[in-house]
Amino acid sequence: MHSGGTMRATTHLTAGLGLLMVGLAVTACGHTAGEDGTAAPTSGVASPSVPSGTSSESPKPTECRTGSLTWTLVLLPTKSSSRRDALLTAVNNGPKPCVFAGYPGLSVHNGKANSIEGVGHGHPKPVTLRKGTGVTVDLQYTPRSAKGAGDYCVKEGEALVSAPHNPDRERTNVPVVDTHHAAAEIDACGDSISLSLPHHTTAPATTTR
C-alpha cells in the first residue's frame, strides 16, 4: 500500500513539474528581458517606424521647360567667309532648379516655306540650372555668301527654340541680335545648323527674350 501511494505521489509531482515548465516557456516567449533584468512584454507592441516622406535628401530637379527659360541668340562677328557663328543661351528664370538634358530645339525658317533645323553632334551631359544660371550652345552654319553654299537657304531675324525633349508646340520665337544688342539676321544655307555640346554659363550674353 505504501509503495503504491508513493508511486502515485511521484506521478502527480512529475506532471505538476511538467505543467510548470510549460507555463514558464509560454511566459518566456511573451517577454524579453528589460534593461534592469526584469521581463518586459513584447507582444502587441509595435516596432518603431520611420515616417514616410521625411527623407533628408532633396527632391531631384525636373527637366527644364521652354517657358521657364530666358533665351538669347547672338550673332557673332564674321571671322571666316565660309561659316558664321552664333551663341544660343538659355537661363533658368524659374524659382526652382531644373535640368537641361540634351540639345535644344532650333529652327530657322522663311515663314512656312524653307526651314533649317539645328542638329547636335555628340552626347551632352545633363546640366543642372539654378535660378539665374544657364547653358550656352555654339551655333555654326554656312552663310549664303560662302563658296558652294547652294541654293537652299533661309534668312530670318528670329529662330524657334525649345528646351530639350519639350514638344515642338512649346517652341518660342527668339530674336537674333548682334553683340551690340542690335537686330541681326541669320542667313544660312545647307541641310542644318550645327549645335555644339551645351556648356554651363553664369550669365547670358545679353538680356532679351
Short description:
The chain is mainly β and 209 residues long. The protein contains one helix and 15 strands, in the order αβββββββββββββββ. The longest helix has 28 residues.
Structure, described:
This protein has 209 residues and is mainly beta. 13% of the residues lie in helices and 38% in strands. It has one helix and 15 strands; from the N terminus they run αβββββββββββββββ. The termini are far apart.
Q: Would you spell out the secondary-structure blueprint of this structure?
A:
Elements: H1 2-29, E1 31-33, E2 39-41, E3 62-63, E4 69-75, E5 84-92, E6 98-100, E7 105-109, E8 115-120, E9 127-129, E10 134-143, E11 153-156, E12 158-162, E13 172-178, E14 186-195, E15 199-201
Parallel strand pairs: 3-6, 4-13, 8-14
Antiparallel strand pairs: 1-2, 4-5, 5-10, 6-9, 7-8, 7-12, 10-14, 10-15, 11-14, 12-13
Features:
209 residues, mainly beta, 3-stranded mixed sheet, 1 helix
Instruction: Detail the poorly predicted runs.
Output: 1-55, 204-209
The rounded distance between the terminal residues' Cα atoms is 116 Å
Rg computed from alpha carbons, rounded to a whole number of angstroms: 38 Å
- Average pLDDT level: 78
Shape from CA axes?
A: elongated
